[in-house]
Amino acid sequence: MQEAHRLKVYKFGGASVRDAEAIRNLARIVGKNTPQEQLLIVVSAMGKTTNALEEIFHLAHAGQDYAAPLTALREYHAGVAAALLSEAGGQIPPSTANQSHLANLLAQLCEQLTTLTPGDYDRQYDQIVSYGELLATSIVAQALGAHWLDCRPLIRTDHTWREGRLDWPTTEYNIRDEVPPLLLTGPVVTQGFLGGTASGATTTLGREGSDYTAAIFAYCLHAESVTIWKDVAGLLNADPKIFADTVRYPEISYQETIEMAYYGASVIHPKTIKPLAVQRIPLYVKSFLDPTAEGTRIGDCRHAALAPAFIRKADQCLISFESKDLTFISEENLEVIFGALAQVRLKINLMQNSAISFSVCTDFSAYRLEKLLNHLRDHFTIHYNTGLELYTIKNYDAASIQRLTMGRELLLEQRTRLTFQFVCRDA
Ligand SMILES: Nc1ncnc2c1ncn2[C@@H]1O[C@H](COP(=O)(O)OP(=O)(O)O)[C@@H](O)[C@H]1O
Ligand SMILES: N[C@@H](CC(=O)OP(=O)(O)O)C(=O)O
Fold it and tell me: What local confidence, expressed as pLDDT, does residue 95 receive?
């Protein structure tokens, strides 16, 4: 077995491959690599394709007409592929094999949509929504003249549809067996977000899970570094789409980053950091709009006190459970509540206990909430509020709390030495 030395892993998300010009920009970034460096390129679905596929799947599963969004999706991908070929000025050789690869994938998607059956929503979701990454990588591999690698037989997961849990030993064995020889022949392009079960069904790793895929490959191949190319200057102290006056962290530790991702900083998928930290592989967050700019280095470092970080999680639900007979919330009650939350797969973002009531803040899902109520309404009196926001300030000070809480009615508030969190109504 050959070891991949001096391997870099690049991850390009939806925004960086949203149209032909974006893919040409990607090709310029990749072209800066020296021949001594091997490159594995992980690519997400183009633009908002995953949302479009979710909508198509939802309509198809409900037996409704999905022809219009499916046509739009086909034309979008075929249009980008055609633009890359026609405007390549001879740089990208048209390959019949690759053109038919894309056409085959589109035909497979159409075919699979006609075979959906009632029920079994999450499993069928994965079989359809995964086409976003398959299509995008087909186009990008063609544009780069790179090898197209199907990651699904390599990244082995269990049957937790829409959030496949990794079988690390099998995945590591598969990747180390298959990928190093391919890397010797030039850049390899593969899909983010996808995995496969032992029986060959497709799984997905959770929305925005392509960053995690990059970390999985980097871990298994002992990569030198991972770079995720984003539309921002690096890891900032807040999402610039929500907060004004953001500052960039030039360097930040794995631990700070994992906490920011956990609290909801959507720039990095929360599962990305651990595999990299275990092997001390640095993670660079860089701007595909300004590729030579410094960006952020995430690694094993010590740094001075960081500027407070502001994180908002929207679309939250606050659920409170009260014992029906004024008995205290006990460990036995909590066991029942936690068990039910795990069963319906509602994740706790914040929790608080008082004498006869226990409150949890979770991402809102009407379907999962209904299932939870069915499980627990005989045991507890349950109240819930939807349309809420959860704010977290990491490394807070008085001024940052004042800035964020001013004029807001707080429904729940909690602070530790370094973290201040509150739930309030959606502005
Ligand atoms: N702390 C943060 N620093 C930088 N960007 C952030 C932060 N929190 C949220 N974001 C958002 O993350 C976006 C980039 O992540 P994402 O949309 O997942 O990229 P992609 O899908 O292209 O991989 C930015 O456009 C920004 O709005
Ligand atoms: N395409 C998937 C996976 C992903 O990670 O996408 P992005 O890298 O664009 O966030 C999603 O939208 O959830």
Answer: 58
Q: Which two tokens stand for residue 112?
A: 């699979």
Long-range contacts at 57-65 (CB < 8 A, ≥ 24 apart): 57/113, 57/116, 57/124, 57/125, 57/128, 57/129, 60/113, 60/116, 60/128, 61/116, 61/118, 61/121, 61/124, 61/125
CB 423: neighbour CB atoms within 10 A? 24
Q: What is the pLDDT of residue 3?
A: 46
**What's the CA gap between 192 and 226, in Å, rounded?**
13
> How many alpha carbons fall within 13 Å on the CB side of residue 64?
8
Give CATH for domain 7-230: 3.40.1160.10
CATH domain 309-425 topology? VC0802-like (3.30.2130)
Predicted confidence (pLDDT) per residue in 337-356, tens digit: 999 999 998 999 999 998 88
- Cα of 206 from ligand 1 centre, angstroms: 16
Pocket test for ligand 1, best of 16, 26, 267 (most atoms within 8 A of CB): 267
Q: Is the pLDDT of residue 93 over 60?
A: no
Ligand 2 atom nearest residue 266's Cα: 10
Give me Rg for the CA atoms of the chain.
23
Residue nearest to atom 8 of ligand 2 (CA): 13
For ligand 1, atom 15, which residue shows the shortest CA distance? 267
For the chain, the average pLDDT equals: 93
**Average pLDDT of the segment spanning 305-329:** 90
Q: Which of 212, 192, 210, 120 shows the shortest CA–CA distance to 161?
A: 120
Listed by start position, the domains of the chain span 7-230, 309-425
| Ligand 2 binding pocket includes 14 (Cβ within 6 Å) | yes
* Residue 88, pLDDT score: 56
